[in-house]
Design goal:
By secondary structure, the chain is α/β, with parallel strands linked by helices. It contains ten helices and eight strands. The termini are far apart.
């Protein structure tokens, strides 16, 4: 029996029992899977729709399993938007069932194939952390905007205006990131993190990035991974390594301890925000704020 059978049955049951609450709404409800994606969609639709993040701030999407409450929220949404590329890996079959009766947008479909980072030929081997390349995130937001216009063509004028304004902000953000990372690269620094979320960041801004875990936090680092990363930290005289907000710092602490045993002191900095924003109203509570916060932490930790 499929491990997804129970949630799928619940979806089918909700289709049969769904109330007519949509008809009484003052504005449509859009459900976006992560807080990062919800923030992007809010910038596009502004106050024309209520945008709800399925996963609360601080939740790891790699490990997330939909609850009964989530299924109810998804099936009663007017539109569902998700990242794709198996970021929400445990929800893949749920999306397939929802697509039979609802409008869904997979933002990864708007990205050029050659821009994606792969670790193997399988579909799930594509790195889903596209938002760490600000230009690539901009493409995803352009695609989301075009798809929302297809869904609500009467919103076209305002959606296009909102999208242009947001893309201008993202272009400015990309320039700031590029300038700061140029300084890090000139100082010979390496970015060492808990899991492999920053590959797009390294590729886009030409910075060497190393991590302890793989693309998904479901993977477990082995002794060889730990030893190799300790060697990299020691040989590159790395000043700081970084914990992440949604991951236990235990494994990355072991890297700092191992480096210390080899007479190289490295600080444990962060946490960096990788798969989720911080709470609403905090500096890292928006996508732009998250990128700026991560950049500040990295810059201040690696440079004198």
């Amino acid at each position: 029996m499929s491990k997804y059978l129970i949630p799928i049955l619940l979806i089918l049951l909700s289709f049969a029992c769904k109330s007519d609450s949509k008809e009484t709404r003052t504005k449509p409800v859009i459900v976006a899977t992560t807080s990062i994606l919800a923030d992007g969609i809010r910038n596009i639709v502004q106050d024309q729709a209520a945008v709800i993040a399925l996963m609360p701030a601080g939740v790891d999407p790699h490990l997330y399993k939909a609850s009964v409450r989530d299924l109810d929220l998804l099936t009663n949404a007017d539109l569902v938007v998700y990242h794709g590329l198996y970021l929400e890996g445990k929800m893949t079959e749920i999306f397939e069932k929802l697509a039979l009766s609802q409008t869904l947008i997979d933002i990864s479909r708007g990205l050029p194939e050659e821009a994606l980072i792969r670790s193997g030929p399988e579909a799930h081997s594509v790195d889903p952390h596209i938002w760490f390349d600000v230009k690539l995130w901009s493409k995803a937001m352009e695609y989301a905007s075009a798809e929302i216009i297809r869904w609500k063509p009467e919103w076209k004028s305002s959606l296009e205006s909102n999208s242009i304004a947001y893309l201008v902000k993202l272009r400015a953000l990309d320039e700031v990131v590029r300038t700061k990372v140029n300084e890090l690269r000139s100082a010979g620094q390496v970015l060492v993190t808990a899991h492999d979320a920053f590959a797009y960041f390294g590729k886009a801004y030409d910075l060497e990035v190393k991590s302890l875990q793989g693309l998904s936090t479901l993977s477990e680092p082995g002794l060889r991974d730990l030893t190799e990363l300790i060697t990299i930290v020691q040989e590159n005289k790395v000043k700081a390594i970084f914990a992440e907000q949604t991951i236990s710092p235990k494994a990355i602490r072991a890297v700092a301890a191992g480096a210390a045993e080899r007479n190289h002191q490295v600080s444990l900095a962060g946490p960096l925000y990788t798969d989720s924003l911080d709470a609403e109203g905090t500096p890292a509570g928006t996508y732009i704020g998250m990128v700026e916060t991560n950049l500040r932490i990295i810059y201040e930790s690696l440079l004198p």
